Amino acid sequence: MLPAFAQLPAELRLGYAPAPGARRIITAAEAARLSAQHGLPVEARELCVERATEKLTAERILAAMRQAVGREDVRLELVDYSRYPVPAGELEFPRTGLGAPPAAAATGVLLWRGRLRFDGSRSLPVWARVRISAPGRRVVAAANLPPDKPIEACRLRLEQGEWFPFADQPLDAVEAAVGKVPRRWIRAGSVLYARMLAPPKEVERGAAVEVAVASGGAQLRFQARAETAGRAGDVILVRSPLNGRRIAGRVEGPGKVVVDANCCKPDYAGDVRGPDR
């Protein structure tokens, strides 16, 4: 820096600053022009301008990560991070820059991409490799769980440990799975998630059901046998004991089916027609 330039206000802009890590050369002629422009003694000397930078520290990175995590129970272990110099600015590690580990490596090392904001809207990419875990509980199948068979408590176990806290959360109480049915075959040792289970069917195929038929203001009730299975709200088929025909009805609850005779009528081939048009 030319000594004469020290007389100028610090906030005065003389030109564009170089990008972080780059250098800008101010020629002797340009330095002389700037000196004369601001009434300074002219010194025809070449200048090298470089932006002040610093290296990131583990403490600074962990502080930015904790702000993004927002949970006191999450454990962060910094394994490695970008070592190149960066300008002064605001360090950010958004959650969107963090990938999720595969299920088999729930506490493995993850790459977390961040950025350092400087000069208003400008930013530089930074990165870190980190292990992230939090204490928790999860329900695990203690035995094979076949589909469409209600789950019993003796076929489950509850595990406690530390896992990645931001993935799809497993069930954390045995009661949340007992009585429900797997949507597909679940092998012993598998972690259970809500999406893997469904409520049990209120009506099973071949079971006796109570059918209520509404036609205008009249109602008829009789016992029938379910031809198909279903849960509450599902439309199933029941076989009428009066004429042997199949009738469509909506499951209202365990062993209960409601038929709206004003809406649908049975087909003589055994199928169900929709509303008359």
Q: Could you explain how this protein is built, in words?
A:
The structure is a single chain. Strands 4, 6, 7, 8 and 9 form a five-stranded antiparallel sheet that branches. 16% of the residues are buried. This protein has two helices and 18 strands. 8% of the residues lie in helices and 37% in strands. The protein has 277 residues and is mainly beta.
How are the elements arranged and paired?
Blueprint: E1 23-26, H1 28-37, E2 47-50, E3 53-54, H2 58-69, E4 75-81, E5 86-87, E6 90-92, E7 109-118, E8 122-141, E9 156-163, E10 181-182, E11 197-198, E12 208-215, E13 218-226, E14 235-239, E15 246-253, E16 256-260, E17 265-266, E18 272-273
Parallel strand pairs: 12-16
Antiparallel strand pairs: 1-2, 3-5, 4-8, 6-7, 7-8, 8-9, 10-11, 12-13, 13-14, 14-15, 15-16, 17-18
Distance between the termini: 90 Å
Q: What general outline do the C-alpha atoms trace? A: elongated
Structurally, the number of domains stands at 3
Strand composition percent: 35-45%
Mean pLDDT: 84
Give the beta-strand count. 18
* SSE sequence, one letter per element: EHEEHEEEEEEEEEEEEEEE
What is the alpha-carbon Rg in Å?
A: 36 Å
Helical fraction: under 10%
Largest sheet: 5 strands, antiparallel
Outline:
This protein is mainly β and 277 residues long. The chain has helices at residues 28-37, 58-69, and strands at residues 23-26, 47-50, 53-54, 75-81, 86-87, 90-92, 109-118, 122-141, 156-163, 181-182, 197-198, 208-215, 218-226, 235-239, 246-253, 256-260, 265-266, 272-273. Strands 4, 6, 7, 8 and 9 form a five-stranded antiparallel β-sheet that branches. A five-stranded mixed β-barrel has the order 12-13-14-15-16. The chain has a two-stranded antiparallel sheet with strand order 1-2.
